[in-house]
Amino acid sequence: MFEKLHNRVFGFKGSLLGFDAYDEFRFTVAEENPSFGYLESVEDPNTGFIVTSPFRFFPAYEFAIDEKDKAELEIKEPEEVLVLSIINVKNPFLESTVNLMAPLIINVTNHQGRQIILTSPYAYGTKERLFKPAPKESGEDAC
């Protein structure tokens, strides 16, 4: 899914919440699973995030990008847009959460991105379980 973006650098102009000192992030595909990627700061290799496409895990996820953000990112066509969400990794990994209220919007044509904050009421929050818990088997609680 992300292979054509592997090793590309995207400029975020300090828009990542809490990481405004960092502008450029290199994207690499996770070798372990190509549904995930890494965004690593070019300025500080110790700063980075595990990301994924939110649509891979939440097919009904949707929102509108406002005109100001489209203009700032010079988005002209929907095909130019890549949406990523930052994962909060837990141990075990199956309990990890994803932030669906602050997606990363990237123009893959000009390599510019920004994190936006969704303000309208949405069905999703900042700590959505990436993997749904398995249903308990019948009788499991009876022991």
Radius of gyration: 17 Å
Low-pLDDT sequence parts: none
Mean pLDDT: 91
The dominant shape is: globular
The biggest sheet amounts to: 9 strands, antiparallel
Portion in helices: under 10%
Query: And the CATH topology?
Result: BH3618-like
Find the CATH superfamily.
BH3618-like
**SSE pattern:** EEEEHHEEEEE
Give the class from helix and strand content and strand pairing: mainly beta
- State the domain count: 1
Number of E-state strands: 9
Put simply, the count of helices is 2
What is the CATH architecture annotation? Roll
* Ends distance: 44 Å
Fraction in beta strands: 25-35%
Describe it:
Interacts with translational regulator CsrA and flagellin(s). This is Flagellar assembly factor FliW. Keywords: Bacterial flagellum biogenesis, Cell projection, Chaperone, Cilium, Cytoplasm, Flagellum, Translation regulation. By secondary structure, the chain is mainly beta. It has one domain (3-131): BH3618-like (Roll). The chain is 8% helix and 29% strand. The protein is built from two helices and nine strands, in the order ββββααβββββ. The protein has helices at 54-57, 67-73, and strands spanning 8-11, 24-29, 36-41, 48-52, 81-88, 97-98, 104-107, 112-115, 128-129. Strands 1, 2, 3, 4, 5, 6, 7, 8 and 9 form a nine-stranded antiparallel β-sheet that branches. β7 and β8 form a beta hairpin. The chain is globular, with a radius of gyration of 17 Å. The model has no long low-confidence stretch (mean pLDDT 91).
